[in-house]
Amino acid sequence: MNPWSINPWLSYPLTIWAVYTLAVSLCVALYALPTAVIRTIGAQGKRIGPLTSGAHDPRIVPIASGEPAQHSYWTRQLRADAKSWVKAATTVLHTLLITRWLGTTARNLLRGRRPSTPLGHRSGRPEGAITSVALTLTGPGYGAGVMVGTTVAAAFLCLVTVVFGLLIGMVCAALATASLILRGLDLLAQWGRRIHLKCPYPGCYQPIALPVYHCPRCSAVHQRLRAGRFGVFRRVCQCGERLRTSALLGRHTIPAYCPHCDLPLPRAFGTTRIVHIPIVGGTSSGKTMLMAAMFAGLRSWSDRGQLSVTYATEDDRREVNRIKGQLDRDGWVHQTAVQQPRAMMLQITRGRSRRLLYLYDPMGETFGDSVIVREQQYLAHADGVVLVADALAEPEVRRRLNGRDAPRAVDARPSPEGPKDTYDRLAGEFTALSGRRARTPVATVVTKRDVLDQLTSLPVPGARIDDWLTAIGLGDLVQSLEHDFGRTRYWAVSAHAATGAGALDGESRRAAEPVLWLLSRTGLPVNPLLTSEAGKR
């Protein structure tokens, strides 16, 4: 007889109990599985945030120092929500399995009590013997069932969490990639358009990687308004205003300021190529009058529909109107009184091409001292130079004058320094400041032509101004220009005839040609507006 064999009288009850336990476990597991899943998902939903729109959510991190904007959901709040999901699931499953199903219901069943009997409760009427045995025999099946159901529910929730996490990860990766792409497209657009951002204000003139933007609603300062952790396509300011994060999306419509000097920048800043053109000349050489004539000529071309000329800022509009009013009233304008000028900014458009013109007009005394010239940091950004040549200021030219020509030259108030001296000082410092002198074009403008045409001691300026300069004794200047700088072109202009109440429209347009030619060197299609009279090299 096998000592390990079970008495048939015992094997049948055990088999029946095992089948009963298995059936109870299966039924309880089928109940515990959906119950655990539904309650866990419900708890997770409540943990994500308030059900009422606009209600306070304590999980949201408040705005601290730095950017006055809330972090984008995928960069910070997503981590808080993930922790809430995991904590909610762990809490619900632990409460259901350990505290309620095993700690209360299964324990009562194993003790022969009804499942609903509270822990530690002593009923005054004990359960019947048959009921107590039946409850005790049900306990193991119930315990096994809730453990199996909860385990399967936890595995299912883990699988869902992993799949959901992968999807969220893909979305976050896509958003991060989109941020990098937007930044790259902004840089590529600037590189393709050759846009180099520079401050136009005196004492600054610094390169700008990214302007500072002020919220149009609350004026909060956003130091780094670009695609990133505060938003890919838009960011939400602390006041709720949505701000575009890319120049391609219209960021230029937001007020921009220089990060170095905190002064306002023009609306076209960052989307239009900037062309820096300083007007260089000695004291009383006619620089400011020439600049006023250039403005008049650009307006003339704009009135004819050949160009679109707009003021970059209201300050530029007021300054040009002030100059025009003074010319109409007095016939002349005051000399520039600052060594480091603020750039006059105009947006020039022809066809689909446009440029943001920075026109600098420093005082003439600036170029009388090499140390002061070296402080003109805007020269480092120059895309071209307008060299104002007052021929009457050159001693060699004045020695040629006789008769009544000498008094006429004195009445024209020539510069105390000749154009060759001014040029030598500019050329010497320009190389140190810019490093690309040989590639910089120079528009040489002979001013006071109305006086020069009256002098009988000198030949009349003709079609080739460079040949005329050589003939009157300024050949060294012409040769130096051809040797030191890039392409050079020459004009002779009467600023008095181009400005004021009786301005000649043709002379105004001629005065604008030096600037238009320099703009054409940057790719603006204005060559059809230029005459063929000016000498070329």
UniProtKB/TrEMBL annotation:
<keyword id="KW-0472">Membrane</keyword>
<protein>
    <recommendedName>
        <fullName>Double-GTPase 2 domain-containing protein</fullName>
    </recommendedName>
</protein>
<keyword id="KW-1133">Transmembrane helix</keyword>
<dbReference type="InterPro" id="IPR027417">
    <property type="entry name" value="P-loop_NTPase"/>
</dbReference>
<dbReference type="Pfam" id="PF19993">
    <property type="entry name" value="DO-GTPase2"/>
</dbReference>
<feature type="transmembrane region" description="Helical">
    <location>
        <begin position="152"/>
        <end position="185"/>
    </location>
</feature>
<keyword id="KW-0812">Transmembrane</keyword>
<dbReference type="InterPro" id="IPR045528">
    <property type="entry name" value="DO-GTPase2"/>
</dbReference>
<feature type="domain" description="Double-GTPase 2">
    <location>
        <begin position="277"/>
        <end position="500"/>
    </location>
</feature>
<feature type="transmembrane region" description="Helical">
    <location>
        <begin position="12"/>
        <end position="33"/>
    </location>
</feature>
